[in-house]
Design goal:
single chain; alpha/beta; Serine Threonine Protein Phosphatase 5, Tetratricopeptide repeat; Leucine-rich repeat, LRR (right-handed beta-alpha superhelix); 4-stranded antiparallel beta sheet; 17 strands; 39% helix; elongated
């Protein structure tokens, strides 16, 4: 009895799309050793074909060893996969997409060179791929992909519209990623009071606070630029540098910036010129002097500027005020008393625990009347006089204290003059 050879079997396609031979003819009734050897040969051949055909697509899933040896070889391989995205075979297109995802850095570069030259179908797939790469954990790849999407979005075409839609979609995803990364490294993100000039207090905004507890490196800092919902930024401590300033200069919705005990150069401040909506800027205990005033005058600040504990002079601040129209500028040397009063008077309504005022014995309801012999009548006067002194300076404060006095048939309240000596501290806010 003869049996058909493997080459004579018709090929069939399974639902998976893999080409496999049909089952061999029925082998019942074969008993001889020869027949059993024929059966074994047919089964072996069948298994070989099954393995070979099933393995074939995946044998090309990775480029050959020679492709990976040089960057040029990888670039050529990636470019071929981009072309295959327009292949009529669905399997080839899917395989090309998978291959491109294995080389994200080279793929982003290749897409940047190709995005404006491809047809609509290929362009749609490249936009989709860029959307995935724009949320890559490697922030360099993410930024490159987003930059290409932004460039493509400017095109007046269907690809441009797709890129613009993709940019809006990935923005929320990138912000979530950024928050996770930054929180993991010690940043604080969330609603927080923003105290700038002792009178303006903004609440219920999303704020970013980075201080000495932050452990992120340069790659981590790059994630700051994706915090599109953040309106207020606090940067504090000697670890803050130009990388942080570059990152926050990308936050288009930023309204409030406060820097405390940081090192900052004029070129760093100039980055803030990109922030068109900044309302408040505070430099607190920052080692800058009058040489930085021309740069400050160029910034688009719309409401207040607080220069506290710097080496900027009162004369320099006065010159700066002439260049800003309607901006509240406060310049103080950094001495902190630790009391709160109403704007119209100097009656103490709040006493900060541990402050110089509390340690010196000042009490709530005391009315402050003089600072080192200079009369004060309202909050502005108090702030002006305190602005002349540094943290650690010792001042004399005169005040009137309400005291109950027992009379024959009643109790009356009288104001008793009191003098106290206060060692000014540093503003903790």
């Amino acid at each position: 009895m003869s049996h058909p050879t493997m080459s004579s079997w018709p090929m069939s396609r399974l639902s998976t799309g893999t080409l496999l031979p049909p089952r061999p003819p029925a082998l019942t009734g074969l008993r001889s050793t020869a027949n059993r050897r024929d059966i074994f040969r047919h089964l072996t051949a069948t298994v070989f074909v099954l393995v070979s055909v099933a393995w074939l697509p995946w044998s090309h899933a990775q480029p050959t060893a020679n492709v990976g040896e040089t960057s040029g070889g990888i670039a050529e391989f990636v470019q071929q996969q981009i072309q295959d995205l327009n292949h009529p075979s669905f399997r080839v297109r899917q395989l090309a997409r998978w291959r491109l995802e294995q080389y994200p850095k080279q793929t982003v570069a290749a897409i940047g060179r190709s995005i404006h030259k491809v047809d609509h179908n290929t362009g749609a797939q490249l936009i989709n791929l860029l959307s995935v790469l724009a949320t890559h954990t490697d922030v360099t790849i993410s930024l490159q992909a987003r930059e290409i999407l932004g460039s493509a979005a400017k095109s007046v075409s269907s690809i441009g519209r797709m890129a613009d839609n993709a940019m809006h979609t990935i923005a929320d995803l990138q912000e979530e990623q950024a928050m996770e990364v930054l929180l993991h490294h010690g940043a604080r993100i969330g609603p927080r009071n923003f105290f700038l000039n002792a009178r303006v207090e903004v609440t219920n905004e999303i704020s970013l606070h980075i201080d000495e507890s932050f452990s992120g490196d340069g790659d981590t800092i790059e994630w700051i630029r994706f915090l599109k919902s953040v309106e207020s930024v606090f940067l504090e401590g000697p670890g803050v540098d130009s990388r942080h300033y570059r990152a926050i200069s990308q936050l288009s919705g930023l309204r409030n910036i406060r820097l405390k005990r940081v090192s900052i150069k004029q070129e760093d401040l100039r980055l803030f010129k990109l922030l068109a909506d900044v309302e408040h800027l505070g430099l607190n205990y920052v080692d800058v002097d009058d040489s930085i005033l021309p740069t400050l005058a160029e910034l688009p600040i719309s409401q207040s500027l607080r220069l506290y504990g710097t080496r900027i002079t009162q004369a320099g601040a006065a010159r700066l005020a002439e260049q800003f129209d309607g901006i509240d500028i406060y310049c103080g040397r950094g001495g902190y008393l630790g009391v709160g009063t109403n704007p119209a008077d100097t009656v103490v309504t709040k006493l900060i625990p541990g402050s110089g005022a509390q340690l010196a014995g000042i009490q709530e309801r005391d009315k402050l009347t003089h600072i080192n012999g200079v009369a004060i009548a309202n909050f502005t006067d108090l702030r002006t006089e305190l602005g002349k002194y540094m943290a650690g300076d010792q001042i004399e404060v005169q005040l009137d204290r309400p005291v109950e006095v027992q009379l024959d048939r009643s109790v009356e309240e009288k104001l008793v003059p009191v003098k106290v000596t206060v060692v000014l501290g540093e503003d903790p806010k």
